Amino acid sequence: MRTFVIGIGGVTNGGKTTLAKNLQKHLPNCSIISQDDFFKPESEIETDKNGFLQYDVLEALNMEQMMSAISCWMESPGHSVGSTDGRSAEEIPILIIEGFLLFNYKPLDTLWNRSYFLTIPYEECKRRRSTRVYEPPDPPGYFDGHVWPMYLKHRREMEDITWEVVYLDGTKPEEDLFSQVYEDITKQLEKQKCLQVTA
Ligand SMILES: Nc1ncnc2c1ncn2[C@@H]1O[C@H](COP(=O)(O)OP(=O)(O)OP(=O)(O)O)[C@@H](O)[C@H]1O
Ligand SMILES: [Mg+2]
């Protein structure tokens, strides 16, 4: 069955979940899988020499479980939890996968029909993060001692990516980001339709 898989990666508090939810509201037959739902329990998270829990690394995530959720969706696209319940059954099923460590995880590389990456500057990221309460809450110094350095490391790893990633300025208003990405997805879907007609 035809499907269209969208990756929304990016820095913590870049607006990934917000953008994914806004897109889902306007795209027919669209499901979301959030990487944040696949964190291992705290007891399985490593600690560094400063006592910081190492949450912002792939090892903190149960990626096998996330891959199973994706495979499950692929086997029966458009029927999984979180779908806009088949508003238009004839529309190509769309899956949005959103998370902070998507494009560093090799098994996902061949999946993307379109990849987006939200960035915001250090100060804005630190400010937004300080307004959130995570479970467990960020201890003092966690942003500078773990979160941001890990983000920089992952950005460096992304330099090896061979496919196109559309970088998005996460400081733009929510509505502008939505419009920009929605228009782009619409274009990409049209392109895919044309390719299928000529094939
Ligand atoms: N375009 C935007 N402009 C300003 N603030 C935004 C924008 N998008 C999201 N926010 C705010 O930034 C915070 C983080 O948003 P969101 O949860 O969507 O980000 P995220 O990238 O999914 O974060 P996380 O790393 O926790 O998964 C929220 O308080 C949200 O209201
Ligand atoms: Mg999120």
Automatic annotation (TrEMBL):
Any one Gene Ontology molecular-function term assigned to this protein's record: ribosylnicotinamide kinase activity
CDD domains listed in its UniProt record: NRK1
Pathways per UniProt: Cofactor biosynthesis; NAD(+) biosynthesis
InterPro entries in alphabetical order: P-loop_NTPase (IPR027417)
Gene name per UniProt: NMRK1
Keyword Metal-binding: yes
Keywords: ATP-binding, Kinase, Magnesium, Metal-binding, Nucleotide-binding, Pyridine nucleotide biosynthesis, Transferase
Entry-linked Pfam families: AAA_18
Lineage start: Eukaryota, Metazoa, Chordata, Craniata, Vertebrata
Source organism (scientific name): Sciurus vulgaris (Eurasian red squirrel)
Catalytic reaction equation(s): beta-nicotinamide D-riboside + ATP = beta-nicotinamide D-ribonucleotide + ADP + H(+); beta-D-ribosylnicotinate + ATP = nicotinate beta-D-ribonucleotide + ADP + H(+)
GO CC annotations, alphabetized: cytosol
Protein name: Nicotinamide riboside kinase 1
